[in-house]
Structure formats: C-alpha cells, structure tokens
Amino acid sequence: MQRERSRTNAPPAAVYAERADRFDREATDQQRTVRLYGRLRLALFTASTLGAWWLFASGSGTPAWLLLAAAAALFVVFVARQQAARLRMRRAELMAGFNREGSARIARSWPELRPWPITPSVPGLAAPRDHDYADDLDLYGHASLLHLTGVCGTPPGWRTLQEWLLGGADPKTVALRQDAVSEMAGAFDFRDGLAAETRLAAIPAATRLAPTPATRRLAPAPAATRHGPPPTGTRPAPVTPETPEDSFLRWAEGDPWLPKHRWLRAASLVLPPINAAAITLYSLGMVPIPALVWPLLISAVVLVPRWRAIHAVFDEADDGESGVRRYSPILGHLRGAPLESRYLAALRERVGAGPPADAGRASGPRPGPAAERRTAPEEITALRRLLDMAEARRSPLVHIPLALMFFWDVRVLAGLERWKARSGRRVRGWLEAVGEAEALAALAALAADNPGWTMPTLDPDAATLRARALGHPLLPPQECVHNDVEIGPARSFLLVTGSNMSGKSTLLRATGLNAVLAQAGGPVCAAELRMPPLRVMTSIHIEDSLADGVSYFLAGLQRLKRVVDAAGGPRPRTLYLLDEILQGTNSAERRIAARTVLRKLLTTGAIGAVTTHDLTLADADDLAERATAVHFTESFEGGDAELTFDYRLRDGITTSTNALRLLALAGLGDGDDSRDP
Fold first, then answer.
1. The domain containing residue 530 runs over which residues?
2. 51 found inside a domain
3. Nearest 10 degrees: CA dihedral of 87, 92, 94, 96?
4. What's the CA angle centered on 563, arms 559 and 566, to 5 degrees?
5. pLDDT tens for residues 622-640?
6. N or C terminus of the chain: which is more exposed, having fewer CB within 10 Å?
C-alpha cells in the first residue's frame, strides 16, 4: 500500500497511463497462456486418441482405457487452467480500460467514457420526476455528474451512488465517508480490482468474456433496513418490474417451507434407508420384486405431489442466485481490503463472519456455532453448491431415480433452509455493503482524478455557504474558471447579474453541484468550502408540458412554490438557486411577482442566490438592503468582431449588455436600431 500511495505524487493522468499499459501487458501475457492451453488440449486429444487406437489394435484393451482415463483427467485440468487464464485476461482488460477511463475523466473527454446510459438495463437510472435539483444540476444524462462518476458496475452500486447524490447525509456520516474516500483515492490497486470484479459480476456467466456487460437493478431496501437516514428531497420512485435479485431476497428473507411440512422431512429420513436396503437386497436376489416396488411406490405417493411446490422454492432462490453468486469475488475483494478508515472497516465487518440475522424467525432450522463464523464469500460459495445440487431437477433421467430413492429434493431443500436460517437476512446487508463500497470508490475516483479539489467542511453552526476558488465540477480543468462565493446569512441573498453567456447559470450550477458532492461525502471543486447542512432547491431549467396542460409560466410558478414551501419547512435549511425568475410573462408583472417570491424567501431561514437580467429587480428598498450584488461582464475584441468572457465574478450590478451585439454576430441584425425607443 505504501508503494501504491507513493505513486500518487505523479500527475493522475500519468499514473493512469502507466497502469493502463501495465494491465495491457498483463492481458497480452494471459492471452498467450490461453492460447498455449488451447494447443496443449489439441495435442493431448490427438496423442491420446492415436495412442488408444494403437493399443486397442494391439489387443491391449486395459492400457488403452487407462490411457484414455488419464488423458481425460489431464484434459479437464487443461480446461480449468485455460478458463482461469481467460478470466485473468478479462480482468486485466477491464482494469486497463478502467484506467483509460480515468484519463478521459480528467480531461472531461465525454466521448471516451462509457456512453450514457452506462447501464441501459438498470431500471430507474433517470432523474426522478420533480426532484429538488437532479434535472437542473445535470445529475443524469450525457456529460453529467453520474456520467463523470460512473465507475460502478453493479445495480447496488448505482442505486447507492444515486441515493447519496439525490439526498444529503448528516455531518457525522459525511465525515466518515470523507475519511474513506480520502484513503481509497490513493488505493489504486484496490479500486482497479473492485471495478474489475463488479463489472465482471454484471456480465452473465455464459457471456462473461463478452465486451459489453449487462446489469440489473436491485430494488431499494425497505426503509427499516437501510443504513442511515433517508435521502432528503426525494420522492417515491416509480414501481419497477421485479428483478431476479428481488425474487432471491424475498426467498432469503421469507419464512422457511419445510417446518410447515414436518412429516415430509420425517419421510426423507425414514424412507431412503428402506429404499436403499430394498435395492440392495433385490440386486442380491434375496427379495422378490414387490419388496423393491412397494417402498418406491410409497416414496412416489409421498413426494410427487410436493414436487411442484419444492421446485418453485428452488426457482425462487435460483433465479436471483444466478446474479447473487457472482458477488462472491466482490465480497472477497472487499473483505480483504487493505484499508483502515472506520467506514471501510465497518463494511469489511458486515461482509465478514458474524451471527445469523434470524432473530425474528418464529421457526425453522437453526445453524450451529461453526456456521456463525462463515464470511459472506464462504456463504455464497456454499449457496452455489446447494443450488448446483438442485439443478438435478432439470435432467429427468438423473432426477427421478435420485428423488424417489433418496428424497434428493427434500435433502437439498433442507440444506437451503439451513443456509437461509444462518445467512438469509444477511444477504441484503452484503449487497448494500457492495453498493456503498462502489459509491465510495466513485467519489474516490473524483478525488484521485482532481488533486486540486478539497474535502469540504460541513458545519452545523455555519450561517453561510462560503467557498474559495469554486469551480464547476463538469468543466475540463483547463477551461474551468474559479471564483470566491459566499451565500448567506439568512434574510439576505446573492444577486447575480450579467449579460448573456457571461456565466450566471453556470455559477448557480457550480454552487449546487458542489453542495451536492459535499453532502454526499465527496470532494468539491474548490480550494475551500464551508457550509451548513442544506436542502438544495433549484429553479433553473423549466419546461412546459403539453401532456399535462402546463404552460412555461405556470411550470415556473409551480417550481417556485415548491422552493418556497421547502424554505419554510423543517431543517435542514434550504439553499435556493433561482435562475431568471418567472420568464414567460411581461416584464412589469414579472418584476412584481419575482419581488414577491424573494420577500417570502427572505422571511425564512433559507439562504440562496438569484440571477437576473432585470437590473431593477432589487431596486425596492427592502430588497436592496438585503441583496449582495455581484456580476459577470464581457469584452469585445477587434471592434465588435469577437465577444469574449473572462467568467470572473465582480462586485456590484452589471453595467453592460450584449443582446443586440449577439443578434448582429448571429447575422440577424439590420444594423439600424434607431427605430426602437
């Protein structure tokens, strides 16, 4: 770990380039190994076939069969080693690609990142309708915050990252996340390994070597099982179709089936020995055929009517386990993480050994003391073995004899329910731990990619949001202009004026995005940021709706109503960011309406910033004394030939306009504006 962190002194782009080259070489080496085992398999098949043919032709049947048996065993070894090498090759390819994505993230080269939507098969990866800020601050879509932080590979990872960005955490939780993010930012090997394992887990087992992963969304846990407070400012998500993970969790957390059929369990203990004895005695000629048939017939009468119900239980568990089983390497990687922060140590503990979470069960099998020491990877491996045994039901020629003679299905079901008793209610926590680890890794990637960013201070006693050298997180570093910003205290507001394209809306989005990142536990694009816990409310991007019969002006009013209601609501206090209030009506009524909204906001404990082209908006005495005026400006070079902006924030109200000049530059002016007063 010390060697790994020492490399972080180099520029992040150089670190990513070096690591991508290293993993490319590793993938090439593994590809050679895959090809070598392919040649060895062909040579072994050819040599063993020819050798066996020669031995059979020479009348040496026994040596020929021994040769074929040895060749078959060695062939199986070659196949297993080739598959392992192929998996190592795929893992190295994924890690090389992940590091190349790091270089693209640094440059904000969006076409070189995974195209949006990154996981098209994950339901719910879209901005919630009427969310406080998700649409206005570009959390979703191409060139968005989730696109920039989109290193997650599993549905729990995406769900957790969305939850964190859609609603802020309390200051103590934020501090714990910040420590974990800071530590993980320098842990390149751990983050690369986590990215590779999670992306492998998203690929179906049959196509694990295919280039495009496919993932499914894990349904959110019930409120009682989530860790930490619910997100602030979110609305209930729409109902999505049930996924295999949902089916598996319903089985894992549900009541056992066998305790309701104790007589079937008793029959599985009594009848198999009788059947085995009958088969043995009949094969020795010691009993007639009825002595063989009657025990099997009784077994069939007892078992066959229950097959459908037992197989339904198998299907409920197996559908989800086809995805859950692939979490075992991720859980193992997290369990062995060489990280020491309190948050990550707690995650390791959650996927480690622990007591069974079955205190609420009224009945069912109880695990023994040894079972309580199994870790999550060990338990997933044990589950895989049990479900592999349940696969016998898909082959009637094998299944029917096993089921009738030895009550195979009942024995496998008993094993599954023992597993459920000791670990069923731990699975959701394991998947949530994976999701939290991925969300931390996504925020850590931001910190590693942008060493000039800082960890903010979330201070409950702060009266203002104060930032030094604040920038927009989604802009390329070489284009990002930083400004000092202070918003608050309550009963005041920041009034931002400026001409078109000068940077007013970008300032609001930069402030909002950094506040969102700060309360998610991540780094911010600033040299320093101190703020209280805030509920971010925005009104920047307004859309009318033909389907809902909502005009542009009415949509703006509805949005402002939600902002005002939030500002007057309970803590945390509101940070409102309003861009060009109430466009869509005449200027006189707009000015009166905008002043009315501002007066309502100023009676609350909220803090905020407002942009406007209306330079008289704050002329009213009661607003003028509460407004902190700042502005952006522009300059024309070469006469009126070229319009330039420095995007620097200045004190006071702007004194410049540029709409008519932009009209002329666009080729729409006639050069004569004397006819208009």
1. 450-665
2. yes
3. -170
4. 135
5. 888 899 999 988 776 655 5
6. C
